[in-house]
Amino acid sequence: MSKYHSIVSWTCPFAHRAIIARSLFKVEDQVSQSETSPVKKENKWAFHDSEEYHTPAKDSLFPEATFVADIYNQTPPPNWDKVNSVPLLVDSQTKQSITNTS
Q1: Which of 2, 12, 72, 84 is the 20 to 30 A CA-CA neighbour of 96?
Q2: CB atoms within 10 A of CB 96
Q3: How many distinct helices (H) and strands (E) make up the chain?
Q4: Extended strands (E) in the chain
Q5: How far separated are the first and last CA of the chain, in Å rounded?
Q6: 12 near 101, Cβ under 8 Å?
Q7: pLDDT value of residue 101
Q8: How does pLDDT run along the chain (102 residues), one tens digit per residue?
Q9: Model's pTM, two decimal places?
Q10: Distance (Å, rounded) from C-alpha 29 to C-alpha 5?
């Protein structure tokens, strides 16, 4: 199991930085990654099965979460401004949010 887990959306320009950095620094083994659907549901980043976008129905670390907001409510990051954004970096062992900035 990876030490950290990153939740991103391919359609978010801020998340692109996290996706690119993960690859450039070759930390894919240390930082696992889950993708949300590229289209928001109810104005929230959502996990739902989509063959069109090739996104999974659930996050691998938080399978009970339907929205990224569910993860924020469960484990808010330090200095959280109540915005449920991606990317979100979480400690995989403690399931504590670390940061939501790219």
Answers
A1: 12
A2: 13
A3: 2, 4
A4: 4-8, 31-35, 88-91, 97-99
A5: 23
A6: no
A7: 86
A8: 799 999 999 899 999 999 999 999 999 999 999 999 888 888 899 987 766 767 777 888 999 999 999 999 998 888 888 888 999 999 999 999 999 887
A9: 0.88
A10: 10
Task: Write down the residue that tokens 């790219």 correspond to.
Answer: 102
With vertex at residue 26, the alpha carbon angle to CA 21 and CA 32, rounded to the nearest 5 degrees, is 80
Cβ atoms within 10 Å of 97's Cβ, excluding its own:
19
Q: Give the distance, in angstroms, between the CA of residue 69 and the centroid of all CA atoms in the same chain.
A: 10
**Strand 31-35 relative to strand 4-8: parallel, antiparallel, unpaired?**
parallel
The one-letter code for the residue type at 23 is S
Cα-based torsion angle of the residue sequence 101, 39, 42, 50 in order, rounded to the nearest 10 degrees: -120
